[in-house]
Amino acid sequence: MAKKTFLITGATSGLGAGTALALAKAGHHVTVTGETWQQVREFRDVAEKAKTKLTVIKLDLLDDIDIAHAAQVDADVIVLNAGLQESGAIVDIPLERMRESFEINVFGHLQLIQAIAPRLVAQKKGMFVWLSSIAGLQPVPFLGAYSATKHAIEGIAGAMKLELAPLGIKVATIAPGVFGTGFNDTGAESMHQWHDPKTALVPVPPMGPLLAHQADPQEMIDAIVDTLTSSKPPYRTMRPEATAKAAKAAQAEQWVAKA
Length: 259
Fold this sequence. Notes:
Blueprint: E1 5-8, H1 14-25, E2 29-34, H2 37-49, E3 55-58, H3 64-70, E4 77-80, H4 95-123, E5 127-131, H5 144-164, E6 170-176, H6 183-189, H7 208-211, H8 217-229, E7 236-239, H9 241-254
Parallel strand pairs: 1-2, 1-4, 2-3, 4-5, 5-6, 6-7
Helix pairs in contact: 1-8, 4-5
């Protein structure tokens, strides 16, 4: 298997971290980004304890200097993994929270893409991989802000695929279901910074039942690694399989559902 070079954003924890460590152990050159210096330094220690060689740099997707620095990494596969999840009803969530979600999940990554794309186009090879979600294929109530950013990513990735294929650049998407990495738990809790049940227009149900049956992350990590290292990667990778079936059914239902 030919060795590849990867840049993976927001990969100091969760699925990104597991993927980065697996790729590095397989002999690929991996550069991981963390939002804060604390995350960077802590993940360097994680990699060292795992006897895994990789590079960790700081990348806050709201920081132009950080983005310019990350764009200098010589990587052929760019994995746009960093993300923010905000919970709450759409009619109640503060717009600043919605805007921040788009700035990090979408626009920060677009700025990074536009800084890197000239190099990949010049060499006529490379791949951009967007981390989407089941929430990008079907709307999720009370995760509407997050779902909206992932729907945007689906539209952007689809357009990029068509636009960049003639130039030799591949585009793929990874759409995880609900996995037990801690990401969904913190996302569900995020609304408590602003939500007031006494004044909210829409009552928010308990998130516990949704979080009680999260899947083992290793299944998704293995699938991501397979996609990233394949010579002919699929455009969409989704796990668990039951989630993929549910997403297809939900999309079909939208064609017959009433308002």
